[in-house]
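Appendix B, Record 12. Input sequence as logged:
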Amino acid sequence: MTDTAAAAAVRTGTEVDGPTPDHLDGVDLEGWGLGSNNATGLTNNKLGMWLFLGSDCLLFGALISVYLLMRHRGTGLGPEDLFDIPFTSVSSFVLLMSSMSMVFAVSAIARGEDQRLRLWLLVTALLGAIFIAGQVYEFTAFYREGLGYTTNLFSSAFYSLTGFHGVHVSVGIIMLMSLLVLSLTGRLKQDRAETVEIVGLYWHFVDIVWVLIFTIVYLIP
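Logged structural output:
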């Protein structure tokens, strides 16, 4: 085989008939896009998650913009009448700590430590569930005070933004529990570490978005 044909085979990942020239034995196949499914160097699954998160940024950006426009256009009850900053701060801290446990889960499967993986997946899911429980309690308290979804423009924007984020956290908990079940049934081993990493990307995104929402909704007057 000629050097040109061998190099072309390396670039395209096609089968090579005959021996490859010696000086191509050390070619970095990753550098030519092999070992990944696209030109970005990422697998299709991970690229798909990044694209999804990018589109989600646009959705959250739109919801935050609507909230900023509507927060002072409501009548009656407003944020200064209802928000319990210390309570929401504790809930936010719990959610942020779940990002740390998610990092431990990704690290555990990378080392092939199945027991630690299950532990940290469960801890992450429980912390997320505590956050959701706090959000449900908060929404219930607001409703009892007379702030429903259609009470005014502020309430509609507030419930839409924070509720949409809560749905994301709930989806993340389902994903975490699915990984836990896969691990318990022996279908999530070290060679599938990227699956946990992809779920971790989603979870970290949800946490980062909440930091932004908490700052804008609860802390900025």
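Residues 149 and 159 are 6 Å apart (CA to CA).
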